[in-house]
Amino acid sequence: MSEIPIHDLIGLIWFIVLWAGYTWYADRYARRRPSLRAVMHDYRYEWMQQMLKRDNRVVDVNILRNLLHGVAFFASATLLILAGLLTTLGSTDKAIEIVRALPFAAKTTLAQWELKLLVLSVIFVYAFFKFTWALRQFNYCSVLIGAAPPAGDDAYARRAAGVSTNASKDFNQGLRAYYFSLAALAWFVSPWVFVVATTLVVVVLYLREYRSGALRTLSPAGPE
């Protein structure tokens, strides 16, 4: 670790604290205050109630199929990104020379380069696990739709909505990893740019999930 400058370690610690802190905040308070996750859970519960009333549930299957396609796409894309990162690790010397030739990039040692690529790899491994777990939960939701009883079983509708919401939560956490990976790319420019980019990502995520026009439109009161 002595080969890693202190400002790089500060940037990495700031990155971890903000990501973990925002995830904790979003998971803890998502249902206590207006948020996209809380509002969409209400819609999912209403969806499952309507699903129980339908004899033909082709519409519900098609909705789930669309959700599954989106998750599967990101899971596949994440594997391709991981393959690219591993390939870059295998040609470290050439990659460092290319980065050093960029006028805006910070001077990078071998240890710094490997640490940055390792952090990016960990981010996308985390995203892959989140996407695949979301995929499995959406599959469980499809089974719940297939096994749904006649209308009137409110507890069943709540369970099905809960599974769907949990799958959506993991999918969102995978997408959140993509946002933070963009901040991690700024680390190749400068550790202080990395700090600023991480902060901006958290601000953008907060505004989208708690202060966005989409939230105001989806809320029962509607847009102002």
From TrEMBL:
It comes from Candidatus Muproteobacteria bacterium RBG_16_64_11. It comes from the Bacteria. Keywords: Membrane, Transmembrane, Transmembrane helix. PANTHER family: OS09G0494600 PROTEIN (PTHR31881:SF6), PTHR31881. This is DUF599 domain-containing protein. Pfam families: DUF599 (PF04654). The chain crosses the membrane at residues 6-25, 67-90, 110-129, 178-207.
